[in-house]
Amino acid sequence: MATFTGTVLSNTLNMNTSLTVLTPKRFEGNLCELPVVYLLHGLSENNSDWHDKAPLTTLCDLYKIIFVLPQVERSFYTDMEFGLDYFTYITQELPLLCNKYFGLSLEPQKSYVFGMSMGGYGALKCALSLPERYAGCCAFSSVCDVAEWVNGFGKPYYKEYQAIWGMQLEHLAENCLYNISDKCVKAGIPKTKFYMTCGTEDFLYEGNVKLQKHLASLGLDFTYEEWSGAHEWRFWIKSLFKACEHLWGEIPPHKPLPVFQLNKS
Predict the structure, then answer these.
(1) What does the angle CA 113 – CA 6 – CA 125 come to, to the nearest 5 degrees?
(2) Is the pLDDT of residue 263 over 60?
(3) What average pLDDT does the chain have?
(4) Which residues, 6+ apart, have CB-to-CB distance to 85 below 8 Å?
């Protein structure tokens, strides 16, 4: 198998849900030997966007890694107050389904979570809430403060957030990355490697700068990079390549980076 695109039955969600799994095309061993990257989508995207707009198969082959692309709608990777338990699905059931159907590893040292925008928030939330389950977390152009998001850019969608965090938004605090990270470190400095990026022209830039300073102050294994860029696929594709290089090293000289067209949309 090189690519699976279809649906799986989730008992947590009580429905069939979309899933894409990409593996290296030229690998003779067992898939359980390879790192697994759970690659999370943004608020306006679905689980097919990363596959459609980024050269994931190239990275699979170059780094011998596996990408798992789940679907979570506009849930902010949360066990919703009035809705579905997407956080439980992503962190608990999804790895078991991937192990059952595709033979992917469940070992924490081979498990990684990446994401962009809402998915960047989701990746950080997963890794900071359950650091013992992930060797690495990479977040690009992330929604860093859900309270600021709800009262700012996300204000037109207030009813959605009531469904996620309660009618009075009473569950916002427990889903705040600042609170989650503080609680995480109080339990002991995790071994998880954290990597964040944000473009200097991104409308979420100030929030990312603020959060990265907080995370860096906690003593995490943490790296933050920024360069010119907006909230767009060109930036996220470059971030994805840099994240892989950060975790697994530079692409070997005998495997030059292929030429591909970056999608600006």
Answers:
(1) 20
(2) no
(3) 94
(4) 12, 13, 79
Q: Would 254 be classed as within a structural domain?
A: no
> Per the domain annotation, does 255 fall within a domain?
no
Question: How far, in Å, CA of 157 to CA of 255, rounded?
Answer: 46
> What CA–CA distance (Å, rounded) separates 74 from 43?
5
**Distance (Å, rounded) from C-alpha 170 to C-alpha 172?**
6
* Encoded tokens for 4: 């699976």
Please state the domain count of the chain: 1
> Residue 54 corresponds to which amino acid?
A
Domain-embedded: residue 265: no
**Domain limits for position 11:** 3-248
**CA-CA distance, 205 to 114, in Å (whole number)?**
18
The CATH number of whichever domain residue 238 belongs to comes to 3.40.50.1820
Give the model's pLDDT for residue 256.
54
CB-based burial, 171-208: b 16+ in 10 Å, e otherwise: bbeebbbbebbeebbeeeebebbbbbbbbeebebbebb
Q: pTM here?
A: 0.94
Q: How far apart are CA 13 and CA 24, in angstroms?
A: 29
Collapsed DSSP state (helix, strand, coil) of residue 127: helix
The pLDDT of residue 58 is: 94
| Other residues' Cβ atoms within 10 Å of the Cβ of residue 216 | 14
Position 254, amino acid: H
Tell me phi and psi for residue 138, to 5 degrees. -125, 125
Q: Kindly state whether residue 126 falls inside one of the protein's structural domains.
A: yes
Q: Is 139 helix (H, G, I), strand (E, B) or coil?
A: strand
